[in-house]
């Protein structure tokens, strides 16, 4: 899993590419990116399944900001980003959410 940030010079926006490796994805058929930037919708931000077995999606996030998120695998299993900027307690479950800061 990884995060790649690309800041735009013309707008207060950072293009963040979220990537789930083949190893982390295992036998996943679908992975969605879910976070406060999409109102925690489990269907709004599907990740593209690449031929390499990885999943990826790029999201435009306003700067400056800190955004909580997680991945949902096959609509059943929640996963955190291993390379998140930090983690915070979830207000919905006994777990932590990943945070990306831009």
What do these coordinates show?
With 102 residues, the chain is mainly beta. The protein has one domain: Immunoglobulin-like (Sandwich). The protein contains 1 helix and 9 strands, in the order E-E-H-E-E-E-E-E-E-E. The strands form 2 sheets. Strands 3, 6, 7, 8 and 9 form a 5-stranded antiparallel β-sheet that branches.
Give the topology, please.
Elements: E1 2-7, E2 13-20, H1 22-25, E3 31-35, E4 48-49, E5 55-62, E6 66-73, E7 77-79, E8 86-89, E9 96-101
Antiparallel strand pairs: 1-2, 2-5, 3-6, 4-5, 6-7, 6-9, 8-9
Summarize the structure.
The protein is mainly beta. It has one domain (2-101): Immunoglobulin-like, CATH 2.60.40.
By DSSP (H or I, 4+ residues per run), the number of helices equals 1
- The unreliable regions are none
The largest β sheet comes out as:
5 strands, antiparallel
CATH class category label: Mainly Beta
**Average predicted local confidence, pLDDT:** 95
Q: Give the helix/strand class.
A: mainly beta
Overall geometry comes to globular
Please tag this protein with its features.
102 residues, Immunoglobulin-like, five-stranded antiparallel β-sheet, 1 helix
């Amino acid at each position: 899993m990884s995060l790649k940030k690309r800041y735009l010079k013309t707008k207060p926006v950072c293009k963040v590419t979220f990537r789930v490796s083949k190893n982390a994805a295992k036998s996943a058929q679908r992975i969605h990116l879910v976070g406060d930037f999409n109102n925690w919708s489990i269907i709004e931000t599907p990740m593209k399944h690449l031929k390499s077995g990885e999943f990826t999606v790029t999201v435009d996030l306003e700067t400056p900001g800190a955004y909580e998120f997680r991945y949902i695998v096959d609509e059943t299993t929640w996963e955190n980003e291993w390379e998140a900027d930090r983690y915070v307690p979830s207000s919905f479950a006994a777990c932590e959410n990943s945070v990306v800061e831009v």
